[in-house]
Design brief:
The complex is a heterodimer. Chain A is mostly beta strands. Chain A has a single domain, classed as Distorted Sandwich (Beta-galactosidase, Chain A, domain 5), CATH 2.70.98.10. Chain A contains one helix and 23 strands. In chain A, strands 10, 11, 12, 13, 15, 16, 18, 19, 22 and 23 form a ten-stranded antiparallel sheet that branches. A six-stranded antiparallel sheet of chain A has the order 1-2-3-4-5-6, with no helix packed on it. In chain A, a hairpin with a 2-residue loop joins strand 15 (155-160) and strand 16 (163-167). The radius of gyration of chain A is 18 Å and the shape is globular. By secondary structure, chain B is α+β, with helices and mostly antiparallel strands. Chain B folds into two domains: 9-215, DNA primase, PRIM domain; 281-354. Chain B has eight helices and eleven strands. Chain B has helices spanning 9-17, 19-29, 55-63, 102-118, 151-166, 227-246, 267-273, 282-344; strands at 3-4, 32-38, 41-48, 65-66, 73-75, 80-85, 92-95, 124-127, 133-137, 180-182, 197-198. In chain B, the strands form three sheets. A four-stranded antiparallel sheet of chain B has the order 3-2-6-10, with no helix packed on it. In chain B, a hairpin with a 2-residue loop joins strand 2 (32-38) and strand 3 (41-48). The longest helix of chain B is centred in the C-terminal third of the chain and has 63 residues, at 282-344. Classes of the chains: A mainly beta, B alpha+beta. The interface between A and B is medium-sized, with 28 and 27 residues.
Chain lengths: 268, 354
């Protein structure tokens, strides 16, 4: 491990490390929680761990190919029609203080995310900046590929207008979506004693799509924004939190109460 | 559920329910054919009837295309009106053919406006809702001869002249009265930005975010034409036609291309090619030509009538001749029958012997 020193000279828990096949990754660690980021593959969070338990399905640095799409695992970002323009793009990054900033361009859009980790939650703020001279509209979705232990033991729980949306493993190829009413969902593996949490602003996320891919290796509760519209020289941003807690933890309910996701749309 | 500027159906509905907005749309929709683009884009459009301001929000609700489970339209409800109105008047529209940058289209547009200002032309500007300005000379500003059937020729000539002078690539399809243009204050179907009028003094600093629905303010008295404007436009049209005739090809009036191969030419050039013989002072001469044509048509009509009468007389004569032949035959038949019936003692003849 190579410790990364900030400009102020403090030793940080954000490290640039080569844990997967000699490539450069960023490791964030706080207490029991660890997150690995792969800047060379869409700046994705390639793994989240609580102790020894991993939350995400990971093939990286290997991949499986499905037509034009290469599956590396982790939490992907899809901008535009799937698989989108940035999901496997190389991101630039810098570590400033306790936060990691990653960015890349997709045509005239600068996509930036700022990630911090404070046990038990990883906070990611996404910003889209239109540097071009025409209005741009696209879809954006966050695509976490979850496999806590055996993913078939996982129970998904979300909340829509019609109440709780609970779902156990239903077999490959199953797909459904709901419009979220509450600002989070959980995926729990009781055997492992771990619950993966995603918190998001309900006024930004249009749909949660729950999908069991045909490859039958993980489940994917996708956070979808149907339309990001940007006038020239304007930027939009919002935040999402991912965490790993014990099932029924008070941390989760407190965090969910205070979480807003603070969407913004301003001039640059 | 939006990020950035992505109004959902509820916000769109609220916009079209604004009375200042829907009344203004109605004002511009009157006397025009109105269409609304559908899912597959502008070619998949529906003709709609707009008679009252309340029709606007009603049609808007029906016209939005939604993705299953989403509240943000994939295609915003948008109203487009024909540039030709039911009274025959046509608006002349100039749209810069560039989609990549609003700054570039507005810069090009400002060149065009410089020419318009130089000639004191009565133009209006509105935003397309995407990247370009729509520069419009209202139909009311045109002299009689440039309206109705005369419009495509004049529009073609003016487009070509401006293209030649400014070297700006413009959408030439607006030379046809059958073309559609997004109505003022309608939303752009792709962006959801409003097609708002732009004051002349605001043109150079225009910022597209001003067309976001919640920032739209209705500009009253935007659509107007002064008497001076009309007179300047008439002079301008004369000049355009004069220049094009004085320097064949210079104003792009179709002299440069082989007109026999019309399939490869843009429509305004084809139309303009047919326009090549018009004399220098085009306005007066076109009117004179029309009068001459009318006289010729009258003469032609009278000639045709004479020929028809003569033909009818001939047919009449021939008909009478044929009639006589038949009469003669009939008489012969009757005589034969009579002779026969006398032989048989039958007295049922309808007519007496002639």
């Amino acid at each position: 491990m190579t410790p990364v020193l900030t400009a102020g000279g403090e030793l940080m828990e954000a490290l640039v490390q080569r844990i997967y096949d000699g490539r450069e990754q960023i490791v964030l660690r706080d207490g029991e929680i660890e997150a690995h980021i792969a800047p060379d593959k869409g700046g994705r969070i390639i793994q989240m761990k609580k102790g020894d338990v991993e939350a995400l399905y990971r093939l990286y640095p290997n991949y499986a190919q499905f037509g034009p799409y290469l599956e590396y695992g982790g939490i992907e970002y899809l901008m535009g029609s799937a698989p989108g323009s940035i999901y496997d793009r190389r991101f630039e990054f810098e570590i400033q203080g306790d936060e990691v900033r990653l960015w890349c361009f997709s045509r005239d859009i600068l996509f930036e995310k700022v990630v911090t980790l404070k046990e038990p939650f990883l906070d990611a703020r996404y910003t889209f900046v239109n540097l071009g001279e025409r209005f741009i509209r696209f879809t954006f979705s966050i695509h976490p590929e979850i496999a806590i232990g055996d993913f078939k033991d996982c129970l998904f729980t979300g909340w829509s207008g019609s109440g709780e949306e609970k779902e156990e493993y239903r077999g490959p190829g199953n797909r459904r979506f709901y419009k979220p009413k509450e600002n989070h969902y959980t995926v729990t593996n009781k055997r492992k004693g771990v619950c993966f949490v995603a918190m998001f602003p309900t006024d930004v996320i249009d749909r949660v799509e729950l999908y069991y891919p045909r490859i039958d290796t993980h489940l994917c509760p996708q956070l979808m924004v149907d339309s990001v519209g940007l006038c020239p020289h304007k930027k939009a941003s919002y935040s999402v939190k991912f965490g790993m807690v014990k099932p029924g933890s008070a941390d989760l309910s407190e965090a969910a109460k205070s979480f807003q996701g603070s969407a913004a749309y301003t001039s640059i | 559920m939006t990020l950035g500027y992505s109004p959902n159906l509820e916000a769109v509905q609220a916009y079209y329910e604004r009375t200042d907005v829907n009344r203004e749309i109605l004002r511009h929709a009157r006397d025009r054919s109105i269409v609304m683009p559908h899912r597959r884009g502008f070619n998949d459009r529906e003709r709609v009837v707009v008679k009252a301001a309340e029709d606007i929000p009603r049609l808007a609700q029906r016209g939005a295309s939604l993705r299953l489970g989403s509240t943000v339209p994939t295609l915003y409800p948008s109203f487009h009106g024909s540039i030709k109105r039911s009274d025959g008047k046509c608006d002349m529209v100039f749209e810069i053919d560039m989609k990549q940058s609003y700054k570039r289209t507005f810069r090009s547009g400002s060149l065009l406006l410089r020419v318009f200002d130089k000639f004191d032309l009565p133009y209006l500007v509105k935003f397309s809702g995407n990247t370009s300005p729509h520069i419009i000379i209202p139909g009311e500003a045109f002299p009689e001869y440039a309206q109705g059937d005369g419009f495509p020729l004049i529009a073609a000539a003016v487009h070509s002249y401006l293209q030649e002078k400014t070297r700006i690539s413009m959408d030439g399809s607006f030379a046809s009265g059958e073309h559609f243009l997004r109505l003022p204050y309608s939303l752009n179907e792709n962006t959801g930005l409003a097609s708002i009028p732009i004051a002349h003094e605001e043109f150079h600093d225009f910022d597209p975010s001003r067309a976001e629905m919640d920032r739209v303010e209705v500009m009253t008295g935007w659509w107007k034409v002064t008497r001076e404007g009309r007179s300047s436009l008439e002079d301008f049209i004369s000049l355009v036609i004069g220049e094009s005739r004085g320097r064949p090809g210079a104003a792009g009036l179709g002299f440069m291309e082989p007109l026999g191969d019309e399939g490869h030419l843009p429509p305004w050039r084809v139309a303009a090619g047919r326009f090549a013989g018009v004399d220098r002072t085009m306005g007066r001469d076109l009117a004179r030509m029309q009068q001459d044509l009318a006289v010729q048509m009258e003469d032609l009509g009278a000639g045709i009538q004479r020929d028809v009468d003569s033909l009818q007389r001939r047919i009449g004569r021939v008909g009478r001749g044929i009639g006589r032949i038949f009469e003669y035959r009939e008489t012969e038949d009757e005589e034969e029958k009579e002779e026969k019936s006398e032989e048989e003692g039958d007295d049922s003849r309808p007519y007496g012997r002639r």
